[in-house]
Amino acid sequence: MDLLRALGILLSVAVVLTVNVAAHLYLYRRLIRAHTSRRALRRAGAVGLSALGLLMVAGPAGQHAAPGSLTTLLAKAAFLWMGVGFYLLVTLGALDLGGLLGRLVRRAAKPQPGAGPSDPGRRQFLAQGGLLGVAVAVPTSGYGWWRAFAPPQVTETTIALAGLPRALSGLTIAHLTDIHAGGWVDRDFIAELVERTNALRPDLVAITGDLVDGSVERLAEVVAPLGSLRSRLGTFFVLGNHEYYSGAGPWTALLRSMGMKVLLNETASLEGLDIVGVGDWSMRKRGDASGYDLEAALAGRAPGAPAILLAHQPRGFEQAIEREIGLQLSGHTHGGQIWPWTFAVKLAYHPYCAGLYRVGDRALYVSRGCGFWGPPARVGAPPEIARIVLV
After folding, report:
1. Fewer beta carbons below 10 Å: N end or C end of the chain?
2. What is the residue range of 210's domain?
3. Pair 127, 212 in one domain
């Protein structure tokens, strides 16, 4: 198993490096080579894009291996370029694909023997396309930056929970997830998030993982404002995959010391309602015994009580339905975070990507999350605080 895991990691690294090199070669061709024939400018462009390609790998890797001010700065620069570069690739790729299809149609209708790579019209198209790519990528990335750091939207959803006692009808849950503290998401970001959550006056706060990207030693002060969350029934937390990467044990201990109820494959009963919490789905698949274990979480639970499952990933909803859990709250997907990457995420997590899903009288709510990971951008998938009202 260890050998297979090592081979899988090596394969993933090889794929990432190959895609990285190919993307920067393409950008060199479209942004530098198509605009100038001067050797000095081409060399400068090649050096610049090579440096950015190296930064894409070295920045995040350096921050993970040796957290510090310099490595954090390099990682931020890498993720910033990732967002801009992504939209350059999308725009230029769409233009080139459209141009290719147009040429194929024209050639099929009326062959043009003289047209080819050196055709002046094609060179002009490439040059103009490069300028258009920059004109689209820069403002789109700017909007994505603003949307990522602007206050999350409050989305209110009313859900009928089977078996809910009449006394609990109208109970409100503030659902937070995927905050990703560390790097771009700082203490001020979290303090404002806490203020907006408290303003909703929830009966219960549920945080479904990926709170942090870093160790307790580095981020304890950053997440400290979460200790000011206020609700009648308390704050419940389950681990996401990034807590496992960052040290699940120390984070569990710190969050509990802050007054949160961290559920590790267990159930908490309160006022006739069960709150069930499981570990992250992917960690169980990797052999971590503290990962997703719904059977362990439900062991000893009184049958018949209405239940809400907190699970970082929407995967496993079918198991929740089988065990007659009325509502599952999840995150992880970010709703795709950046259009048109949203389409790939929808395919990967089909059919549960973002929003409310119902199967009979069972429901799943997948939040787009409060923060972001990777590029500091949100396009087509704005961050949210989900306010769930049970009836």
Report:
1. N
2. 154-390
3. no
